[in-house]
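Q: What does the assembled structure look like for these inputs?
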Amino acid sequence: AQSVSQHNHHVILSEAASLELGCNYSYGGTVNLFWYVQYPGQHLQLLLKYFSGDPLVKGIKGFEAEFIKSKFSFNLRKPSVQWSDTAEYFCAVRTNRDDKIIFGKGTRLHILP
Amino acid sequence: DVKVTQSSRYLVKRTGEKVFLECVQDMDHENMFWYRQDPGLGLRLIYFSYDVKMKEKGDIPEGYSVSREKKERFSLILESASTNQTSMYLCASSLGGLGENTEAFFGQGTRLTVV
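A:
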């Protein structure tokens, strides 16, 4: 069965630092990839997605992610974080095998003001 | 905007009770999902439905069942609630297949406490 690994469970950064959150998936076929964000007390919302074409995708709030097929990775990046980026971030994968959407365990990001 | 609505934000139930969690979506999506979210464990898929009356087990189906009698509605049933089912339950819907607009849209969640 397909799975998603997020390597960092808890990340603490200062404002203006650069961010990279790792995500790897286990499936050799065609995939759609997603990053979701959950701000404290709020529901999950889509940050960005990859479905085809340019492997570098840009999302909301200055986030971007790069799909590297050879590494089965879809890492999330932001050049300069803000205090308001404090949230939990989830990577997810959907494959051409079935329509399930499988999530990683999440990364808690805490930005120090 | 896609709207996924879960019938309750908070529920408290007793051990052994039969519990129904309801979810409705208004975008004619083929797929609907039930996840549970626990700290440190992320979102784990309980059940998934790709059409009316069609369902597939996710990673943690034990102790749960589902019902999808209408396209817009997907119910999660805890046959006999137990304390280890205390959790946040999230419903989601999406279009079918792979492509540009196939992300999942989530409801606000139901926090279930079993005492």
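Chain A has a mean pLDDT of 94.
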